[in-house]
Structures are given as structure tokens and as C-alpha cells.
């Protein structure tokens, strides 16, 4: 029986993860496909969303969701970040490990830039923006930890005995809560910033989603155009993220999606940690992020 640690990330007969010159790791067509064909379908239950986070036993225990069902004080980013961090700390025991192990440990976004890298932008508006983004995430982390602490202490919440039992239950899942560090939070936020999608359709309201099942492995190309990914289904129970070929593709060719229309070099670098091959536009150009 195939375990969750060795199951293929992309469950598709049409595409697979591959490495390409210039763009690095991406998604390759295994066979010729026509424009409009669905290349990959990933059920929403396998993605990282705020709703899925609150259904996670680890997150639910940490936030005492049973005693305090409302999680309205937490942003989508924070709930997804908590879910990512807690599952990451479980390692191979996580049933999401086949996706987590494929996530980069480092990103080229400002959230993870070193002081030396920031120094290279001295004198530009981009240095101020990068510092602001990095500081904002640190503030978000501190606020998140304070909110978790308040839920632990909230009158009418779990007793000390119940709280200890809850933490023991989490510990039994081999998660070290003290490892929910600022650095690990920055990593989770970088994952979300560089790989997530905002999805909606006529039946489902807009929400933030970090796709699973390999749907986040597609690189960006402005030639992919609109319609390269979509939310299919009439309810969150049967919904799925679909990646669609926007033109005919040959076997062996890289399949792309569009991260957005008319994205500038700075927008790609600051939001996704990448630039398009062949672009020589300088970072201090008159550019909108």
C-alpha cells in the first residue's frame, strides 16, 4: 500500500514535476495536450486554506476551537501559517508531508532577505518597502502569539487541567510548540505569499488558498493569460483547483500559469521571489509593486 510519504505529488497522467533551464523546477507535459484541457485537478480538501486549518486537530487544539469556536480574530494568512508550521514540525508523520517536503526552505522574497541583500538596495524606495514588509511580518507574528496566549487565558475557556491535556495531545503528535518561531513563521508566510491564489466562483465566496497536489508547482508566464487556473465545484466539499492549458502544448513542453496580468519585475520579485528569464529591467526602475 502506498504511504503518504512516497505518494506522487502530482496525481495526473498529463503532467509531472521537472527541472528546466532558466526557470528551474516547474511542470512538464507528459503528452501533447490541447488548449482548454485540464492538466491537473487538486481537491480543495488537499489545499491549505483557513477553513482546512480550523479542521486540523493540531490547530484546533492549539486554539481551543472546541471551547472557543470563533476564530474571527485570526487572518487567513495566520490560520494557514499555523497549519503549515504545525504540519511541518510533524515531519514524515504528517499526512501532508508529500507536499511539505517539496516546499522550498528558502525564498527570494523580501521576507527572507538578509541584511546584506537589503543593503544592496540602499537609497532606493525598494529598500524601504522591503524593510517594511519584513518588519510587518515580525509584528504579525508577535500579534499572533499574543492572540494564542489570550485564548489560553480567556475566562470561560479551558481549565489549566484541560489546557495541559490539550498541549499533551499536541505533543503526542510529535510537535514541539516552542519551535513555532519567528523564522518558521516567516517561512510559512513566504510560502503563502509566493505560491497562493485567491479563488472564487459563482457558488463560493472569495478565499485565500495555497494549492496542494502540485498545483503550486507551475511557473509564471504572461503568455499563459487568464483562465490558466480556476475553482471548480458548487460547494467547498466537492470543490477543486483546476489548472488548464490555455493553448496547445507538446509532450515535453513546460506548462505555465499566469500569476497576474502585466506583472512588473519588481512585482514578481517582491511577491513571488522570481523574475522572468531574459528580463534586464533594473530593480530601481520607475516600477510599480
Give a description of the structure.
The chain has 289 residues and is α+β, with helices and mostly antiparallel strands. It has 9 helices and 9 strands. Strand 1 and strand 2 form a beta hairpin. Helix 2 packs antiparallel against helix 7 (160-172), helix 3 packs across helix 8 (182-195) and helix 6 (125-153) crosses helix 8. The longest helix is centred in the middle third of the chain and has 29 residues, at 125-153. It starts with 14 loop residues before the first strand and ends in a 17-residue tail after the last helix. Mean pLDDT is 84; it is low at 170-174 and 282-289.
Distance between the termini: 48 Å
Q: Assess the beta-strand content as a share of residues.
A: 5-15%
Count of distinct strands: 9
The share of residues in helices is 25-40%
Summarize the SSE layout with pairings.
Elements: E1 15-20, E2 24-29, E3 38-43, H1 50-55, H2 57-63, H3 76-90, H4 97-100, H5 115-119, H6 125-153, H7 160-172, H8 182-195, E4 197-199, E5 207-209, E6 219-220, E7 229-232, E8 240-244, E9 254-257, H9 265-272
Parallel strand pairs: 6-9
Antiparallel strand pairs: 1-2, 2-9, 3-8, 4-5, 7-8
Would you summarize the structure shown here?
Helix content is 35%, strand content 13%. It has 289 residues and is an alpha+beta fold.
What are the defining features of this structure?
9 strands; 3-stranded antiparallel sheet; globular; 289 residues; alpha+beta
